[in-house]
Give the backbone structure.
Amino acid sequence: MITEATDEYCLAEGESAKLLAGHRWRRFAVLGDSVAEGLCSPVPGYSDLQWADRIAAELAVPHYLNLGVSGLRAHEIRTTQLAPALAFTPDLALVVGGGNDAFSARYNPDRVDTELAAMVTALQSIGADVITLGMFNVSYSPAIPDWLRPGLRTRMTLLSERTQALATRLNTIHVHLTDHPLSSDPTLYSPDGRHGTARSDAVATAETIRRLAAHLTNR
């Protein structure tokens, strides 16, 4: 049985400490939906610590604020979480959203882009480095009905592409998981068909830490 300690896609022992050595982030804020809040289902052999909490733990930041709330769409994240995030004065922030928008056939990519960009630029304006996310494509979850799968896959792919373009334009620390080798692996998706598992959080954490390390190297 694969466990987090033996999973080739997870952090190796001591890898995070080596990659993040000397970083100066002290105040980490998280804005988003259930991906930020952390609703992944447990998997034997993997830590139950959720993705954003894992990042905070690996960074060992003394100040951490997670504002994530399940079910929110991008405009709701901005209207309810941006102000308290700015008041927290983070030097590192994670902004994740749009997944709930893309679940609907009424998904408006331009509107989601506008909301995400507003959050990113506001946080950057106070000096924060901002992490953005291209999510694992939940349309590969076995729990997704077959009739819903093609349209959802198209929308989730578009969300990822648009977010990646936004990240390039705004110079964020972008974590692109959509094309990850495990993206279509059913072990990454919870039985509810909307969220991930502890394995997906462990893999996402590894990719995030490596992206943060690359950012530190390129400064």
Summary: The longest strand covers residues 27-32. The beta strands are 27-32, 63-66, 92-96, 129-134, 173-176.
